[in-house]
């Protein structure tokens, strides 16, 4: 910006910049680099959390289904007790191992599924599948992420 005093003819110039509080180019580049560096860790944490949630959800859904009065009459007490025991042990393990790795959550879920799936199959065979419950597999369909 420049200004001229018409009576004296004196001229002044000043440059106005908006740099206060802004990041430098180097700081921005460092932040982008750090973001890329930690992306893999973030992806691993997301996968771990997804596996944990899937395992926890499976256990609670199975436990709820097995405790449903409509289901109790359609499976044997021994089957129901063994499945409930597997679910309760899994939930107890989950409470004690919140920071386990993705592979451990998946392994534990498969172990519970080995106990529960045959029982649920018997239940389906008798035509009495619990509402909203279907056998799951950790190797199911693709994971869909919403991207902006």
From TrEMBL:
Return one GO MF term: ATP-dependent protein folding chaperone
What keywords are annotated for this sequence in UniProt? ATP-binding, Nucleotide-binding, Stress response
Biological process according to GO: endoplasmic reticulum unfolded protein response
Please verify whether the record's keywords include Amino-acid biosynthesis: no
Q: Which reaction does it catalyse?
A: ATP + H2O = ADP + phosphate + H(+)
Task: Keyword check for Cell division, yes or no.
Answer: no
Which InterPro entries is this protein grouped with? Answer: HSP70_C_sf, HSP70_peptide-bd_sf, Hsp_70_fam
Residue ranges under compositional bias (Basic and acidic residues)? Answer: 7-46
Q: Which GO terms describe its cellular component?
A: endoplasmic reticulum chaperone complex
Question: Which residues does the annotated region (Disordered) include?
Answer: 1-46, 127-148
Q: Tell me its family.
A: Belongs to the heat shock protein 70 family.
Q: What name does the UniProt record give this protein? A: Heat shock 70 kDa protein cognate 4-like
Query: Which organism's genome codes for this protein?
Result: Hirondellea gigas
């Amino acid at each position: 910006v420049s200004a001229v005093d018409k009576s004296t003819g004196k001229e002044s110039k000043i440059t106005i910049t908006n740099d206060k509080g802004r990041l430098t180019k180097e700081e921005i580049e460092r932040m982008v680099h750090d973001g890329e560096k930690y992306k893999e860790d973030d992806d691993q944490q997301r996968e771990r959390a997804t596996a944990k949630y899937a395992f926890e959800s499976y256990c609670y859904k199975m436990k709820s289904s097995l405790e449903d009065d409509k289901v109790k009459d359609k499976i044997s007490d021994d089957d129901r007790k063994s499945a409930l025991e597997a679910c309760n042990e899994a939930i107890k393990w989950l409470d004690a191992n919140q920071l386990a790795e993705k592979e451990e959550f998946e392994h534990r879920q498969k172990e519970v599924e080995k106990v529960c799936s045959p029982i649920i199959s018997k239940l389906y065979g008798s035509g009495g599948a619990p509402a909203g419950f279907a056998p799951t597999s950790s190797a199911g369909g693709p994971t869909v992420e919403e991207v902006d």
